Amino acid sequence: MKDYSPNPSRYDAMKWRRCGSSSLRLPVFSLGFWHNFGSVDDFGEATAMVRLAFDSGICSFDLANNYGPQPGSAEENFGRIFRKDLAAHRDEIFVSSKAGHLMWPGPYGDGSSRKSIIASCEQSLRRTGLEYFDIFYSHRYDGETPVEETMQALVDLVRQGKALYAGISKYPPLQQMQAYRYLSSAGVPCLLSQYCYNMFAREEGEAALENAAAKGSGFIAFSPLSQGLLTDKYLHGIPEDSRAARPTGFLQAGQVTPEKVAAAAKLGSIAESRGQSLAQMALAWVLRDEKVSSVILGPRNCSQLESNLKAMDNTVFSESELQKIDSILNEI
Fold this sequence. Notes:
With about 325 residues, the chain is α/β, with parallel strands linked by helices. The protein has a single domain, classed as NADP-dependent oxidoreductase domain (TIM Barrel, Alpha-Beta Barrel). The protein has helices at about 45-55, 75-85, 115-130, 145-160, 175-185, 200-215, 260-275, 280-285, 300-310, 320-330, and strands at about 15-20, 25, 30, 60, 95-100, 135-140, 165-170, 190-195, 220, 295. It has an eight-stranded parallel beta barrel, surrounded by six helices. A two-stranded antiparallel ribbon has the order 1-2. Strand 4 (about 60), helix 2 (about 75-85) and strand 5 form a beta-alpha-beta unit. Helix 4 crosses helix 5 (about 175-185), helix 5 (about 175-185) packs parallel to helix 6 and helix 7 (about 260-275) packs antiparallel against helix 10.
């Protein structure tokens, strides 16, 4: 692969949004490393996607300690790409990581305790080769650790300079609000709240979005295409090269239900009338609310990434379109 020289006009075509009450802005699209950047994936394609993303104005990269497979390998691969292609541009990019899911054996390798959060951040910094993360998230509420303990660990990471901001991901509503209050009282307000939000996961995502907005937190959405269900990929069965067919994926074949396939087909007709693919419309649907700071893309290749970026061209929906979409989704 040829040496990489970034496109100097890379930010011109990107759209930007503020993160809640902070002045910090993010590109409306971020590049996610949940899938397609692990040790089982094509490193050349991963490198090409990072380069294309950066050239297109995507300067936000979303990682977690357990992303792979194998866990940790996505951070390692990001570190390899960063050192070769992006190190000179560190102050232009926004890198996040998270901790909270199983990473190593024993009682401290899982969950949201202070011990686990601090150790995970240290390990993630070593894997990526970074001196600090722009934001470090608690990846989940584990049901056991007091919210105050986990939030204080994030506060301390910020005060130690290992992260510039703190964030939460997938917290239930009660714990979400507790986290906001604690972080605010400590002088380290929650910059971003990361939740699953898409047409097939509306209610929980919208509730989390409203809670975040009420407390001045930005909101970043993951799985906007419901891991491929909101594309035309599964309209005629499960392709051999799809996520649902892969043994290492999170999307299982049983989740490709007839009801969701039928809904996707109907939604595709609306997308076609808008001059978009179903995937582009699904991304635009998440972006229709200005309270959404950024949407995390999880493309498998550069072609998918290029197509996803075109969703920015039309994020406005008529009331009639929204009513038709709601009617289809209410049938599931």
